UniProtKB/TrEMBL annotation:
Organism encoding this protein: Nonomuraea cavernae
Domain Oxidoreductase molybdopterin-binding per the UniProt entry, residue ranges: 22-170
Domain of life, source organism: Bacteria
InterPro entries, per the entry: OxRdtase_Mopterin-bd_dom (IPR000572), OxRdtase_Mopterin-bd_sf (IPR036374)
Name of this chain's protein: Oxidoreductase
Gene3D superfamilies: Oxidoreductase, molybdopterin-binding domain
SUPFAM superfamilies: Oxidoreductase molybdopterin-binding domain
Length: 198
């Protein structure tokens, strides 16, 4: 039997819906930066200006994308910077097990380090060979295709290395801390011991 591609409860819509909370931010290349802070190995914050970030080597990922509101987009082609590149240039303290992804306007999502370094996770700048559109996260979004899409933070401005797990924007508002669509981890009341911060 073939592996199913659609996680339980999901459907493929017409078109590609755009969803976010709040307004679409403006991109100002001169003041844009990507900050790596929290428990860095050096104890110092790292900062990338747009010109530096844009020159980092790019990788390709083709992946399906699953929103907790039940639509799934199949075979999306992303290009961008691998989390491994950021971990090399701005290494975490060895005790770091979780990462908070931070966006414009304070939107955030937490990831386990294992999800951050998973092969499909990417800081995407392009989709379908074009720069990502403003409403899909231009100039930079993370895609974490193996988790529900609220973890795929648009308009990313930095990451925070965490020694202890902490909930992000939707995880604080009743959504599952881990968010594996194959296990239908939609809501926080489904969390098993060890899946969320104490
Ligand atoms: N900064 C930010 N990123 C975000 C959101 C948001 O509200 N703000 N919404 C998330 C949710 S719930 C989904 S389903 C996806 C939608 O991505 P899309 O608009 O490219 O379909 O973005 C995610 N990333
Ligand atoms: Mo979503």
């Amino acid at each position: 039997m073939q592996e199913p591609r659609l996680p339980p409860g999901q459907y493929v819509p017409r078109g590609r819906p755009v969803i976010h909370y709040g307004r679409v931010p403006q991109f100002r290349p001169d003041s844009w930066d990507f900050r790596v802070f929290g428990a860095t190995a050096s104890g110092e914050e790292h900062r990338f200006a747009w010109d530096d970030f844009e020159r980092l080597p790019r990788a390709d990922v083709v992946a399906d994308f699953h929103c907790v509101t039940k639509f799934s987009l199949m075979g999306v082609e992303w290009r961008g910077v691998s989390p491994a590149t950021i971990l090399d240039l701005a290494p975490p303290d060895p005790g770091v097990r979780h990462v908070m992804i931070w966006a414009e306007y304070g939107y955030s999502a937490n990831l386990r380090m294992s999800d951050f370094t998973a092969p499909g996770t990417l800081f995407a700048m392009e989709v379908d060979d074009k720069p990502i559109s403003l409403d899909r996260g231009f100039p930079l979004r993370i895609v974490v295709p193996h988790l529900y899409a609220w973890k795929s933070v648009k308009w990313v401005r930095g990451i925070e290395y965490l020694l202890e797990d902490r909930r992000g924007f939707w995880e604080e508002r009743g959504y599952h801390n881990v968010a594996d669509p194959w296990r239908e981890q939609r809501y926080s009341y489904q969390e098993e011991p060890g899946e969320g911060p104490p």
